[in-house]
Amino acid sequence: RPKIISISNQKGGVGKTTTAINLGAALAFKGKTVALIDLDPQGNASTGLGLEKSERKATTYDLLLSDQGLGDILWQTDVPRLWLAPSNTDLSSADLQLMATERRTFMLADAFRQQSIENLDLDYILVDCPPSLNLLTLNAMVASDSVLVPLQAEFFALEGLSQLMLSVREIRQTANTRLRLEGIVLTMFDKRNNLCRQVELDARENLQDLVFDTVIPRNVRVSEAPSFGRPVLTYDPFSRGAVAYKSLAVELIG
Amino acid sequence: RPKIISISNQKGGVGKTTTAINLGAALAFKGKTVALIDLDPQGNASTGLGLEKSERKATTYDLLLSDQGLGDILWQTDVPRLWLAPSNTDLSSADLQLMATERRTFMLADAFRQQSIENLDLDYILVDCPPSLNLLTLNAMVASDSVLVPLQAEFFALEGLSQLMLSVREIRQTANTRLRLEGIVLTMFDKRNNLCRQVELDARENLQDLVFDTVIPRNVRVSEAPSFGRPVLTYDPFSRGAVAYKSLAVELIG
Ligand SMILES: Nc1ncnc2c1ncn2[C@@H]1O[C@H](COP(=O)(O)OP(=O)(O)OP(=O)(O)O)[C@@H](O)[C@H]1O
Ligand SMILES: Nc1ncnc2c1ncn2[C@@H]1O[C@H](COP(=O)(O)OP(=O)(O)OP(=O)(O)O)[C@@H](O)[C@H]1O
Ligand SMILES: [Mg+2]
Ligand SMILES: [Mg+2]
After folding, report:
1. Is the CB of A241 inside a 6 Å radius of any atom of ligand 1?
2. pLDDT tens digits for A120-137?
3. Which of A238, B22, B104, B219 is deepest in the core (most CB within 10 A)?
């Protein structure tokens, strides 16, 4: 059975998609078989892995609201052992449609429980969430074993963290008893910046073991890679960003 | 009658809140009376203007879903002529509740149309939107004269722009005939970065007059200011960020 991890933070622009793509690629490099589920209607994870909008025939929308299984939707990326369930703007109407469904927060969990998953021999499923605590994100958390939280070392990003942790606890108590926090990873970190260093001190003091040792530095190669449809691990394997995501994968595997 | 402008972009972390706070402050500095409506359940605009969570008695939630008028909700910030309609996490349940309301996309427009607005003598109403094209953002666009779009000069941010412009056009055709694009402002711009320069070239070539001449530089003083509850214009008036937001205000006033 694969380990299912939601990459989530309702604060926007903190590096959720970048972490989903590059952690996914790093795990695949380490020999793991990974499926990346793009649950954001923006479809950034799908674009960042090189799948043009016109090529996205079956999407996460179908996984949630039709009887297509994960096996029918997964697309092989250029990275061996890294698969993608793509998304497009159809997904933005999923929120409304899920609202009218009986099992509206369990649709993704039900899709993952289908028989077809066993044959895929996956080690990890990573779910890239949109920037809000909406029904799509709730579906991800109800379906997951844990939540990995990218945290930009900035003031506004720190503010939303307690709300996110409350939501995780609430879901564990009401819908998914196995859900726990995988950890918090500092992203876009600039060690010359006082604010960054202050946020890191605060986070490690208050959250201790929950914060990964690995810190992802701000690195322009990371933000260039998606325009070539590739993870930074293949775009520039020796960049500081690629090295950091490899070390995050090692830390995650444990 | 005040000019009502939504600050919106479904891409997360592109500088919506930072632009709402600092453009609001810059307009107030120029002698305009401004109300900033915090329509994001994260409440970053409220925190960034110094209003603690415990002090937010009447919020934007009440403006949308009760018969409180704007006059009952507005709080005077430390900046003369800059008022704030604060928000808190109650607003995250507004989405669900609005869903069940007959005039669900018109609730904010109705609240702005009340008599009490006339007495406030406002020149501008700025609405800080959450990072999604949900019912809260739809309410903002239906209630507005125009949409101002902060655009981070990065690949993923550019990808969502066409979707946003489609939504603006759709709302103009179905719910608010006066809605138009106020303009696109490049944010967190680093002129040493090739990607930034490329995005600026692309944007000015394809969108021409829609792109403001003023470009907001990446400036650490901008990201420090909210932790002191103040706009960068009062935190560090001579910083590059403060100067840029003043020039954006001049360009907006026209
Ligand atoms: N380590 C890094 N160094 C430099 N740029 C980065 C880094 N991580 C992310 N970025 C850039 O920052 C921007 C925001 O990252 P990303 O889109 O992954 O965040 P997100 O949380 O998924 O955003 P959203 O809330 O819209 O889903 C992107 O343009 C991305 O390329
Ligand atoms: N010009 C700038 N220079 C440096 N940092 C900036 C600048 N503008 C914004 N920031 C920082 O970047 C982060 C994202 O900005 P902000 O929160 O305003 O974006 P947003 O679009 O409102 O995000 P969300 O999608 O979560 O609402 C914040 O930490 C902010 O302090
Ligand atoms: Mg994303
Ligand atoms: Mg914001």
Report:
1. yes
2. 899 999 999 999 999 999
3. B22
